[in-house]
Amino acid sequence: MAERKPSDGAGPKPTTDHGSRLRRVLDQRADVLTHLGDDPSTKPALVEALGVSRSTVDRTLKTLTAHGLVRRDDGRVVATGAGRLAADSVRRYHGATADVSHTADVLRVLPADAEVAHEFLAGATVHRSSEAAGRQALRAAMSVVEGAESVAALSRTVTDTSTPTAAYRLVVETAATLEVVYAPNVAAFIREEHAEDRREMAGTGRYRAFEASSVPFGLFIANANGETSVALAIYDAEETLVGVLTNDSNDAVEWAEAVYRRYRAAATEFTDEFEAT
Predict the structure, then answer these.
(1) Which of 88, 89, 80, 81 is nearest to 61 (CA)?
(2) What is the 3-state secondary structure (H, E, C) of 19-39?
(3) Has residue 9 got a pLDDT over 80?
(4) Minimal CA–CA distance to 220: which of 275, 161, 274, 167?
(5) Helix %, strand %, coil % for the chain, to 5?
(6) Cα gap 10→88, rounded to integer Å
(7) Residue 70 half-sphere exposure, CB side, CA atoms within 13 Å?
(8) Terminal CA-to-CA distance of the chain, rounded, Å?
(9) Which residues pair with 177 in a beta bridge?
(10) For residues 167 and 165, what is the distance between their CA atoms, to the nearest angstrom?
(11) What is the per-residue pLDDT across 225-265, written as a single tens digit (0 to 9) for each?
(12) pTM for this one?
C-alpha cells in the first residue's frame, strides 16, 4: 500500500473557507451582485452606477467569477443562476435587518425565550408607547379587535381597566366569538374581579378561557369580513406597555395563528368555572 503523504497545503481550500471568503465579499461589495441580479451590465456602467473605482469593480468581479456567481457574456457581465440566488439572499438579509432595526427599541424588553419571527416584523407598523402616547399604543391594539367577528388572544397583563369591559362588549353586545389564553396573574384577576360578566359571556357559548403557565406578550388575532389582522403588545419587566406592532400580511397572520395554537394546546381551559350550575 502506498504511503499517504502529508498535505503541504496545496490544492482546493475547504468548503468552509470558500464560504467564508464569499461572505466577506458579499459583506463588502453586495451592491455589485445585487445590481447584476437585476440586469446584465458592463464594467464602465457598474463603475458609474455604483460610484466606485474601476479597480474595485475589477477585483469584485474577479472574486464573484471565481465563486461562480457571475460570468462574461458578449462584453457584458451577467449574474449566473447561483449569483441571482445570492443576490436575492442579500436583499432578504438587508430587509430582515432593517425590520429588526426598526423595531429593536420595542423588542429589546421581550423575555429571552420569547420568539418573534421575521415574517411578523416585515411590513409591521410600530406604535410606540410613552407617557404622552401610552393610550395611543393601546388603542392601536384595540382597533384591531373592534368590529371583529372572532378574536383569539394571548393576555399577558391587564394594562387598562377598560380591557375586560371591551371583551364583554365584544362577546355579549356584538355577538363575536372570543378565545383567550391568560397568564396566571390575569386569570386570577378575571376570576376575582370579573366572574359575573365572564359567566354571562360563557353563557353565550362564544367565549372560552384558558390559563397558561406563562405568556410572553399580548397577541390579538381578529377576523372581520374575511380579513385577518394581528396586534402584538410588548411589555417590560414591570408590565408597562412599551409598544404595539400591527400587521395584516399573510405571513404575519400565519405566524401569529401558529403561536396562538401552541400556547392554547399547552394551556388549561377554565371556561366551566363561569358556566351556570
Answers:
(1) 80
(2) HHHHHHHHHHHHHHHHHHHHC
(3) no
(4) 167
(5) 50, 20, 30
(6) 34
(7) 30
(8) 87
(9) 150
(10) 5
(11) 999 999 999 999 888 889 999 999 999 999 999 999 999 99
(12) 0.71
